[in-house]
Amino acid sequence: MTALPALAADTPSLVQSVDWLAIAPVVITAVVGVAVLVADLFVTERHKPVLGWISVAGLAAATATLLPLRAGDRSTFCLTADPEACSYVADHFTVVVQFLVLAGALLTALLSVTAVRDTRMPAGEYWFLLLSSAAGAALLPASRDLATLIVALEVASLPAFALVGMRRGDRLSSEAALKFFLSSVTATAVSLMGVSFVYAVTGSLHLTQVADRLEDVPGQLDTLAMAGVALTLVGFAFKTAAVPFHFWVPDTYVGAPLPIAGYLSVIGKAVGFTGLILVTVIAFPAYSQVWGPAVAVLAALTMTLGNAAAVRQSADRPNSAVRLLAWSSVGQAGYLLVPIAAAAYSERDQIGSTLAYALMYAAVNLGAFAVAALVARTKPQHRISDYRGLYAEHPLAALSLAFFLLCLAGLPPGIIGLFAKVTVFQSAVDAGLGWLAVLMAINVVIALYYYLRWTALLFRAPEGAEGARARTKAPWPVAAAIVATAVTAVVLSGAPQLVLRVASGSLFTQ
Amino acid sequence: MIDISPSVMQFLLAFIVAAPLLGAVAALLPAPPGLKGRSPEQAVLRHGVTVTGVILAAAIALALGFDHDAPSRFQATTDISWIPALDVRIHLGVDGISLPLLVMTALLFFLCALYSYFKLPAGPSPKAFVALLLVLESGTLATFAVLDLLLFFLAFEMVLIPMYFLIARWGGAQRQAAAWKFILYTLLGSVVMLLGLLLIGVTADTFDMVALASDNGRELSHTTQLLAVLSIGLGLAVKTPMWPLHSWLPDAHTAAPTVGSVLLAGVLLKMGTYGFVRILLPVTPDGMATFAPYLGAFAAVGIVYGSLACLALARKGNKGDLKRLIAYSSVGHMGFVLLGIASMTPTGVNGALFANIAHGLITGLLFFLVGALKDRYGTADLDTLAGATGAALYGRAPRLGALLAFAAVASLGLPGLAGFWGEMLALFGAFDPAEGLSRAAFLTYTAVGAFGTLLTAAYLLVVVRRVCMGDPKAGPALAVADVQRYEFAAWTPLVALTVLAGLWPALLLGLTDPAVQQLLAGGNS
């Protein structure tokens, strides 16, 4: 939004109309974030938990404001000269992704309430950073010019670096944050360079105008445009944790507080792939022959490497559970990329499959992290072997985790996971990407191995003396998060249409 | 036979598919007051018997209400939209092809539940056992009842997790490895199958099996059909299993508990062959015609390979496991089924369907008997059992010995028992294959198959000699209990049906033949 006045310099009026309702989900999140930071100065140590509840309420309110927007027909910050070119569009795509981001952040916040209290993280900073990052992530799907897109990407990422390093005095945590920060900044810089190339070629930052002008690029600028397109993708591929931009993931997840690892695995990914979708299918459809194969290869590498690494996690090592979830999220990112690649070969509505899959993935992955948070209370080592006999200790949590893992694996009874995979397969088959579909089929089998191994472990007889393990009560925010995700997953398994409707029909108005 | 109103029939079919799932959930909940039984274990096992019994009753009612004058028409149909985004419809229905399979499945599950009530396999809680058994039942029944490609895939996948846990938790030696092999193999097959199903659905713009079958592949180009047959056929062939994709089967059978083996052989293998008949033959006839000679070749090799493997296992000093032996015999028997399908003639396909049912009954019985032997002797190792002269079952436990001999001769295809008709018809079909298929090739397969029947007879007779005959005084002084009452209850229906199907094959063929004729002709007959 900052870059617009300069762009519209030759137009008579510079003042753009603002539709406050359309931008409410983002504004509320940001305002509550600032409010929490300020309030932190005046709240006594004893009352710090209030900040957490204010944040939860703020995120819930932001999520609720999506309700009047569900028609998906609003846009604002349009050029006064060209009302078709808007910087902020709240179409169906935006609303769906914003729902994913805000509801996901809400679940993260629920998990964080206990985590912040137990690990004595600075409450004000934590909540401010979480809300800022969520605001950036919610802004991203709505932004329709390259400048806003990059700004949103950075607003979503920068607080995340700090969040990863939140565990004070923990060397692993600071190292993870630094690793994450350095690699992310490099990726963004590369992206920015790509954007500048594209701007040089087209003379516009608005995605729709860029798309139009890329249709007929003068011959001598063609290489520049192509380089711009390729470089722009890098930054987003990094956020999606696509191979070869994935190396930061496992260490970052292990070093970060657990709720933040869950947040990164879901919202961080959402940020990456929405940006990727926007630049590919909205801004650069003219260069689909460049990014189509590139994204397809990225998808293939990402799922294969992610799954191969996840299979290799041995159950007894410390942090193996978080590492497995981290690598599996890399593998899942590969599936998410498949429909984007397919969109290059057929039509852009294919990306609905990505969204449908992401919605399913968000619910079950956050659910898995919620159960991990519960288990970590008694066994802070995050080993997979710690989950042995969980059914005897917390039957409902164990059943939920089993269900989440089977959804991720895509096998009944996780019906929603199965059908979400079917839509992804369908997009690949539809686009004629047979090789990618076959590769994905093999990956699904590999992934089943480690998901099912973990699932089977939950129901084994617990090791050691029975009396030694006292049954601990789950704190209610964590329990609420588990119940919410489990109920969502079960309901969606009965009525997959609720999510899969996103995969059919058009999501974009422009 | 009896007049049941269409809406009741519709309800019966939906009930058969859905009720086991509800039963599975109920099995996990604590028993309500009044149904507590002697102990929680007994209550939940009784619950399993009750639910499978009710399902069997519903299946029999469905069979009675089925209009036997029009077995080629889908009856008791339900067709409601479920996931419009993917065009998935809950489309259920039975015809002459699926009805016998449905009834047999319901029967085998009831018998397994009954058997487990008295003889629970060693392992963790019976609660989970019953719940898994019921989920498995729902998945298999759904496979035979659904008429939508994606729903078929869903049902196909639904059996994986319960079967995995049944093997991995209640199985014998090497159960972990066997369970992994089972699930990874089958999943790889079925995911590849999904690609083929999607290819058909995307190209023809519908996932409805009835619409696709009556269209008979006219919408699909030859290339599409080839790709579809290749990928779907691969998935089904792993499940069937077709040589050389069978290697998961012997391990899974050997490690699985008795009821697991019975269900695996009796029901799960049929899902593969049913898919060939229900999907590939009518939907992609051109592609199928191209691949039929290869399918026939693999089938013929499978027949001989299975028999030879069994012969090797049955020989003295080879430490052959009886369960493994019967698993290999399944590879041979399923070879006949595949050969019948590959001939693409009504005779061959009818034979295949008949052999399907016969194999379910006979091999189910064989696995029950071998399981009982294993329980009594503590091993299924043929050399240990037989000792120097033979296990002398005729002398020690005459009824058990007689039943085993009966099942063995039924399995080798003695005329007058169920095993005969299916394999004979399959060979007849291959003798005179459909137009366009190489006669010479199929004549060879027929000859190889006929030779396979000889080998089958050979190894089964060796088994009978080594297990049933011998000197009861020699060998370990071990009191072997004869057939118990519950064992009689679980096995008699299988024996009776084997005899019935053998003496009155028209009962089954009358159901399948019209449906097969229509299937092969596409909506034109």
From TrEMBL, chain A:
Keyword Transferase tagged: no
Catalysed reactions, semicolon-separated: a quinone + NADH + 5 H(+)(in) = a quinol + NAD(+) + 4 H(+)(out)
Membrane-topology descriptor: Multi-pass membrane protein
Pfam families documented for this protein: Proton_antipo_M
Chain ranges passing through the membrane: 20-43, 50-69, 89-111, 123-140, 146-166, 178-201, 224-248, 260-284, 290-312, 324-345, 357-376, 396-420, 432-452, 478-500
Domain NADH:quinone oxidoreductase/Mrp antiporter transmembrane: 143-446
Enzyme class: translocase
EC number(s) given by UniProt: 7.1.1.-
InterPro entries hit by this protein: NADH-Q_OxRdtase_suN/2 (IPR010096), ND/Mrp_TM (IPR001750)
UniProt subcellular location: Cell membrane; Endomembrane system; Membrane
UniProt entry keywords in alphabetical sequence: Cell membrane, Membrane, NAD, Quinone, Translocase, Transmembrane, Transmembrane helix, Transport
Keyword hit for tRNA processing: no
Cross-referenced PANTHER family: NADH DEHYDROGENASE (PTHR22773)
Function per UniProt: NDH-1 shuttles electrons from NADH, via FMN and iron-sulfur (Fe-S) centers, to quinones in the respiratory chain. The immediate electron acceptor for the enzyme in this species is believed to be a menaquinone. Couples the redox reaction to proton translocation (for every two electrons transferred, four hydrogen ions are translocated across the cytoplasmic membrane), and thus conserves the redox energy in a proton gradient.
Subunit structure: NDH-1 is composed of 14 different subunits. Subunits NuoA, H, J, K, L, M, N constitute the membrane sector of the complex.
Similarity-based family: Belongs to the complex I subunit 2 family.
UniProt-recorded name of the protein: NADH-quinone oxidoreductase subunit N
